Structure formats: structure tokens, C-alpha cells
Automatic annotation (TrEMBL):
It comes from Sphaerochaeta globosa (strain ATCC BAA-1886 / DSM 22777 / Buddy) (Spirochaeta sp. (strain Buddy)). This is Glycosyl transferase family 2. It comes from the Bacteria. InterPro entries: Glyco_trans_2-like (IPR001173), Nucleotide-diphossugar_trans (IPR029044). Pfam families: Glycos_transf_2. Keywords: Glycosyltransferase, Transferase. SUPFAM superfamilies: Nucleotide-diphospho-sugar transferases. The keyword Transferase applies. Residues 9-133 form the Glycosyltransferase 2-like domain. One of its GO terms (molecular function) is hexosyltransferase activity.
Amino acid sequence: MMQNKVYVTVVVPVYNSAKFIGACIESLRNQTLKEVEFLIINDGSSDNSLDIILSETKGDERFIIFNQVNSGVSAARNKGIRESKGQFLMFVDSDDSLIGENCIRYLYEKIISTDADVIAFGSKHVLSNGASFIHNVSKHNEIIALSSNRVAASRKTINNPNYRYSVWNKIYKSSVIIKNNIFFESYSDVISEDKVFNQHFFIFATKAVLVSDTLYKYSVVENSLSHSKNYENVIYRVNNTIERGSKFYFILSPNEKSGLFWPLYLDCLSICAELLYSFNKLPYEEVQIRIVDLLQATQALRIQNDALDSPIWKMTSDKKKNVFFMLLCSLIRRSAYKQAAVVLLSKSRIRMVWKKRR
């Protein structure tokens, strides 16, 4: 790469994306910011993705291509982190694209001017039938001091459904990632690599910015929530997500730990019930037993992160979700595990009925 300065590194994992990668690369190639590097990580594609990549990036020195044996999206992103030279880091999926030729320039100038560690932005979600909708992280631009009150800040960021756990709708300060050794967990070990990554980044970041702009085109794959025929594997991954997502909580005060742990914990339990019952369609009674086992297995970790004298309220920015979480929290704190499992499964049943009626 001839240029000396790299302001922004964009990491693009690619696996058998021949249908989409051309449009993705075009959106990157058209970016007006020159001090940027695009790290294309070909993760052992068996189709003609690599041929398209080589053709579409020819002559543009901002593109650097790496080939590796198929190891999964987390390994590809981690390769990109290790090879990155930019002050800031972005992740783009190979079937998606950036919106507007000034997208990266705008984000770079915004993160420099606000001295933020992370900026989250809006996205356009496109369904397979061509329909689309806009998902905004905020109605207006907002600067959030994370370190002054992490529990309050979490309601506007990691515990705000609009903020999303995705990494593709954000730009990160690279030094926070490198200094604190923040990398992606393997998908075979956790239920959401992005969820754990953002949990870790949040602990060490000091300032976040939400912008109202829509800067990313996301291709929605219907029913993409991962199934696992092996329910033990789901339990294993949920357990790991809870444990690994909270591994840096030891640097927080007791009340901060409680305020951040419970939303992570209860959200993982909800996803667990959804995966086992709604998506894998295991019998109600079997799922109930599995959830109770998980609650018992995570009791020590929960006690470690829960200041019992700390009231848990307004856990997220979603009022309905807060009521649901507060009920679950109350039951679990009293070791009423069977009742907690019933509440989780009742939610899954309601969601199943709602989806059928849509």
C-alpha cells in the first residue's frame, strides 16, 4: 500500500458471496476518503468470490486481500483487526454495502470532531422480496458519556434495541480494541459474536455518539436466527455468552456490575428459550428442564455479579421489556427457577402465535 496514512480500516469477511460481493466492493471503491484501507478476508470461499474480488479491486491500492482456510466470520474479522493500520475500524458484511460515497469520510470527520470511541448509525434493511425499511439508532445526533454513569449510558447504547448489537452499524476507535485485546469469539462457542464484542468494548470506551443518518444497506435473510439440532450445544453457547460477555465486569463497582449483568443475562435466557422452543421446536417440558439447568449452572456467576441491595429497574430503553426483565429478575433472585422458565417460555409461545398471524 503506497499511502502512509490510514485513517480508517474496513474489514470485509467473505465466504461464498459471489452473488453480492461485487456490489459491496463497488460501494467501498466509490468512497471519497483516500486514507482508508479495505481488508478483504477471503475465508476459504469455494465459489468464484475470489475471482470477482480480484477483478473488482484491480488498480485500487486501498484494497488488500487475504486468503485463509475457512475458519468462520469471527476468525476472519480477527484477522482484519490484527492486520489493520487505521485509527478507526469498521466491519462490513460481504452481502451488504455502504450508502453514499461520502459515508466513511463523514464518519471519520464526526468521530474526530467529537473525540468519540464509537459512533452508531442507521441502516436500510432490504428483504429478499425487495421491500425495505429504515432502522434508526436515534432520531437526532446525540453524544453519550459512557464512563460517567455506565448503567444509564447502557440504556441508550448496548441495552437499547435501536442501538443493536451489530458491529456493521458502527465505527470504532482502534486503540480501544487493540489496547484491551478485544476480539471476536467463535460462533460455535457463543450465540452472538457481536453481542460479546460490544459488551467488551463498552466497558473500556468513554464516549459514544449516535447519529440519525442512514449509512448502511443491510440484506435481511429471513429466519436467519441460528438453529441447533443439538440442544446441549445451545445451552453451551448461551452459558459461554453470559460468562464471556461479563468477563471484564470485575473492574466495575458492585452496582455497575448488577446494572449491566442483568440485561445481558436475561437477554441471553430469552434467546435460549427462543432457540430451543420456537426454532428447534423441542417439547415444552424438555425446554423448561434445560432452562432450569442453565439457571442453576450460572448461579455462581450471577451471585458474583449481583449486588442484592441494588434495585434493578429501567434496565433497557424499552418499557415493556423492562417489565418482563423485572419479573424475571425477581423470580431468579428468589431461586424460583421453574417459574422463571415458565415466564420465558410463555414469551416464546406468544411470539410464535404473533409470527403466524403476521
